[in-house]
Design brief:
GO terms for molecular function: transmembrane transporter activity. Keywords: Membrane, Transmembrane, Transmembrane helix. It holds the Pfam family MFS_1. It is a multi-pass membrane protein. The chain has a domain of 94 residues. With 144 residues, the chain is mainly α.
Length: 144
């Protein structure tokens, strides 16, 4: 039974807190999966594709004259399509260590998502509704 300030607060909020927790947990899981996918797409789309206009036939020429020995990539082929103020400064310049560090940081953030949601659902959601709200929360992994 609610008494005092809890009764007055419950009159103002039409949606029970456990449903708000379920909706926020759903968006947390969607966000975690979206971040995981977005980094892979962003890294591959940052650099424009390099296409070689010459055709290389390994049986048609000497190795000294082949495209592999004579082709030298210039700096202009790896220029980004946007200005330097909108780039992620350390991760986009080809530094693989920065990419690994970002992935590790992302993993630390995402690794706590499921245990935290399990603990929150166990504390806030009654046993009769736990399966319904839990399935709502974890459906975010399929959508994200």
């Amino acid at each position: 039974m609610l008494t005092g300030w809890r009764l007055s607060v419950s009159k103002w909020f039409l949606i029970p807190h456990r449903y708000v927790l379920g909706i926020m947990g759903f968006f947390a899981v969607v966000n975690a999966y979206t971040m995981r996918v977005s980094l892979n797409l962003a890294i591959t789309e940052m650099v424009p594709p390099v296409s070689v206009s010459e055709y290389y036939d390994p049986n048609g020429c000497n190795p000294e004259d082949s495209l592999l020995y004579t082709y030298k990539a210039s700096d202009s082929e790896y220029v980004y399509d946007w200005d330097s103020t909108t780039q992620v400064i350390y991760a986009t310049d080809g530094n693989w260590k920065a990419l690994v560090a970002i992935r590790m940081l992302e993993g630390l953030g995402e690794g706590t998502t499921y245990p935290a949601l399990n603990a929150l659902l166990a504390q806030w959601v009654p046993l009769q509704e736990r399966a319904k709200i839990g399935s709502l929360v974890y459906a975010g992994s399929q959508i994200g």
